[in-house]
Amino acid sequence: MEVTININGEPVTREIEPALLLVHFIRDTPGLTGTHWGCDTSNCGACVVQMDGLPVKSCTVLAAMAEGHEIRTIEALSIDGVLDPVQQGFHEEHGLQCGFCTPGMIMTARALLDANPDPTEDEIRTAISGAICRCTGYSNIVRAVRWAAEHEAAQPRRS
Ligand code: FES
Ligand code: FES
Fold it and tell me: 7 C-alpha vs ligand 2 centroid, how far in Å?
């Protein structure tokens, strides 16, 4: 079957097997390998992208189900080389070590801040509870998201 999926504002068309997962479509066709594939069993959260602004695990979505929806990946977050505040927050607060979980964490956090610009620590921990980081212990990730929230409150983000 042929599907067309809008990824980061660009339509991407490809012949696929009906069972192809969105994570593989994203990584293979436009080559956006910033979306990681960690488990394929909906446990790790490394594959999170935004679908119509909501975080989804792209290993739980068939590519065919994404037709007609807007997919946003980590590659679309920086604008003109300027990091998104969530990306900058991970840098400032050392929110990563190996970086494998980071794209999913950042896309999840970005969706959280878009819906709730001033989340509490509990709200951040709940938002990222579907993602596993084996390196950081989560404290720095929470601080990174708070850094982004405070930065955006002081200096609204360009969109
Ligand atoms: S690859 Fe999707 S949750 Fe792990
Ligand atoms: S930074 Fe290594 S898994 Fe999160």
Answer: 25
